[in-house]
């Protein structure tokens, strides 16, 4: 795992139950899953707009906001980027077409 992701996830975990008035992450945890999910949606939309109209610098910034908020959403559910990477690893060597078929059951 990239150490930068590990450090971010450690900070996010440490903010669970912290004082919401002194921490943005703690304030999001306090507002609950629906608010965190809403932020992920907003940041995804801003990432799309940046990709289509605003250039690579803005896209990098918005993608960082998206990954940051996604990390909080995962932590809120007791999951981590490691879980997501394991899922991607599981898909390695499986074609996209096969993967789609396996999801349909
Ligand atoms: N990487 C980030 C990071 N990226 C973005 N943001 C904040 O995410 C917020 C979302 O941006 P918006 O423009 O949507 O903000 P907004 O309009 O105030 O949001 P809402 O009113 O909709 O909630 C802003 O307040 C940003 O400052 C971040 N806040 C914190 N971090 C990391 O998280 C760590 C812990 O932060 P605290 O919990 O605040 O100590 C920090 O040290 C950083 O490493």
From TrEMBL:
EC number: 3.6.1.31
Localisation per UniProt entry: Cytoplasm
Keywords: Amino-acid biosynthesis, ATP-binding, Cytoplasm, Histidine biosynthesis, Hydrolase, Nucleotide-binding
Gene3D superfamilies: MazG-like
Superkingdom field: Bacteria
Catalytic activity: 1-(5-phospho-beta-D-ribosyl)-ATP + H2O = 1-(5-phospho-beta-D-ribosyl)-5'-AMP + diphosphate + H(+)
InterPro entries: HisE (IPR008179), PRib-ATP_PPHydrolase-like (IPR021130)
Coiled-coil segments: none
UniProt enzyme class: hydrolase
Pfam family, one: PRA-PH
Pathway assigned to this chain's UniProt record: Amino-acid biosynthesis; L-histidine biosynthesis; L-histidine from 5-phospho-alpha-D-ribose 1-diphosphate: step 2/9
GO MF annotation list: phosphoribosyl-ATP diphosphatase activity
Primary location class: cytoplasm
Entry similarity comment: Belongs to the PRA-PH family.
Cross-referenced HAMAP family: HisE
Protein name: Phosphoribosyl-ATP pyrophosphatase
Gene name tied to this protein: hisE
């Amino acid at each position: 795992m990239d150490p930068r992701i590990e450090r971010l996830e450690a900070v996010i975990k440490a903010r669970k139950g912290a004082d919401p008035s002194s921490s943005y992450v703690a304030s999001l945890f306090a507002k609950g899953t629906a608010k965190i999910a809403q932020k992920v949606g907003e940041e995804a939309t801003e990432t799309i707009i940046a990709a289509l109209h605003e250039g690579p610098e803005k896209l990098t910034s918005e993608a960082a906001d998206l990954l940051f908020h996604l990390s909080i959403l995962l932590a809120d559910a007791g999951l981590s980027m490691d879980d997501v990477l394991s899922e991607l690893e599981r898909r390695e060597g499986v074609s996209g077409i096969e993967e789609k078929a396996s999801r349909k059951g």
